[in-house]
Structure formats: C-alpha cells, structure tokens
Amino acid sequence: MSRSLLLILVIALVTLFTRVLPFWVFGGKRQPPAAVLYLGRVLPCAIMGMLVVYCLRGVTPTAYPHGLPELIGAVSAALLHIWRRSTLLSIAVSTAVYMLLVQAAF
After folding, report:
1. What's the pTM?
2. The pLDDT value given to residue 80
3. Structural domain includes residue 35
4. What is the number of structural domains in the chain?
5. What's phi and psi for 48, nearest 5 deg?
6. Residue 33: C-alpha distances to residues 19, 29, 48, 80, 94 (Å)
7. What does 36-60 look like in DSSP terms, one character per residue?
8. Element at 2 (helix H, strand E)
9. C-beta of residue 26 within 8 angstroms of C-beta of residue 32
10. CA–CA separation, 95 vs 91, rounded Å?
11. Per-residue pLDDT for the chain (106 aa), expressed as one digit of tens each?
C-alpha cells in the first residue's frame, strides 16, 4: 500500500470517528449534558464573530479605499441576514458583493 493511500485511509478513519463519536456518547435516549447544549447555542455566534475579526484585521482606514469594500460587504451580510435569516445566503451574497467591489469599483 502506498504512503498516499495509507494517509487517505487514516484521515478517512479519523474523520469517521469524529463524526460517529457523539452518537456513541449521547446515543439512545440520553440527554446531552447542559454544558454541551450551552456550547451548541453560543459557539456558532462566537465563531462568526471571530471570523468577522479575522476578515477585517487587515483593513487600513487611513489608506485608500479606507475599508469601504469590507464595510459594504459586512453591512450587506448583516442586512441580508436580518431580512432573510439565512446564514448561507447572506455569506454568499456579501462575498459576491465584496468581490465585485474589489474587482470593479475600487
């Protein structure tokens, strides 16, 4: 067996294990612990906040284009999410808006 095939096999098994593990631990009729339920509620918002900070870390407000494409993209994501309540749609459309601004307008 080649090294590449062995590597793919190990990665596939680890991925499968991480997907199946919660069902083994919390399988059946057992209720997940309160801490797991709490993390399930707060982590998505925390991760999105961290992604916003990560994406805006390189913005220089004192240099052209003064962060306008990023600001317009972020505002479009927020408004679209408030309007449609679809995370995937707001991310896709705001990314397209940002890329269009960067490529054509600024």
Report:
1. 0.64
2. 96
3. no
4. 2
5. -65, -40
6. 18, 12, 24, 34, 36
7. HHHHHHHHHHHHHHHHHHHHHTT--
8. none
9. yes
10. 6
11. 799 999 999 999 999 999 998 888 887 777 888 998 999 999 999 998 998 899 899 999 999 999 999 999 999 999 999 999 998 999 999 999 999 999 998 8
Amino acid in the structure at residue 77: A
| Domain membership flag for residue 68 | yes
* 3-class SS of residue 69: helix
Residues whose CB is less than 8 angstroms from the CB of residue 91 and which lie 6 or more positions away in sequence, other chains included: 77
Residue 92 forms part of a structural domain: yes
> In this structure, is residue 37 part of a structural domain?
no
* Cβ neighbourhood burial of 27 (10 Å; 0-12, 13-18, 19+): exposed
Domain range enclosing 4: 1-30
Identify residue 105 by its one-letter amino acid code. A
User: 39 is written with which tokens?
Assistant: 């993390």
Report pLDDT for 101: 95
